[in-house]
Amino acid sequence: MRSYRIAEPELRIGVLALQGGFEAHARMLGDQLGADAREVRVPEDVDDLDGLVIPGGESTTISKGIDAAGLEPAIRAHHEAGRPVFGTCAGMIVCDDRHLGLIDATAERNAFGRQLQSFEADLAVQGIGDEPLRAVFIRAPWVSRHGPGVEVLASHEGHPVAIRGEGVLACAFHPELTDDPRLHALFMAMATSAGERGVSERGIR
Predict the structure, then answer these.
(1) Under a CB-based contact definition with an 8 Å cutoff, are residues 160 and 142 in contact?
(2) pTM of the model
(3) Which member of 79, 95, 171, 176 is catalytic?
C-alpha cells in the first residue's frame, strides 16, 4: 500500500456519509494521507472543514439525503467560502449544474453503461505525475458539457472523466477503491491552498 502522508498541519476533510463508499474515502484520507477524516451527516458537521468529499453511490439517493438532512445550505456555504469539494462518480453528478450547481459542467448518468459494463482503465491524469492512475468505473458518468473555466484532467474514449474548476475536483470513477491516493492528495493540496488564501486575505484586512 502506498503512503503519501502530507497533511501537516492536519487537514479536516469531511466525507458525506449518507450513502455510498464513504468509509473507503475516510480510510484513504486518514490512514494514507494523514488527514483528520470526518463523517458528515448533519449541517453542523460541515462547519469547520477544510474540504468535503461527496462519494459515489446513487446520485438520486444522495441528493434526497442532502435535502432530508438540510445539508444543502451548509455545502453551499462551504463552497462559497472557497473551501473545495471533491465529487466522485455519483458525487460528480451531485456537484454538476443539474443538481447542486457547484461546477459549470453537466454529468450524464450511467454514460458508460450499467453495472455489467463496469470496468477498469489506466488514465493519464494531469497534476498527479506521469504514472497512469488505475481507475475503477462502476455505472460511471462522463462529462457531456463543461464551461471554459473548467479544466479537463483526464479523458477516457474521448469523454472527460476528471475535471477541476471553481473549487471543485470531480471524477467519474472510484479512486477510493485502489491503493493509489494521488487524486485524494491533489484534492488535499487544493484544500491547503484554499486555507492559505484565506489566511492571506484575513491578514490583508
Answers:
(1) yes
(2) 0.92
(3) 176
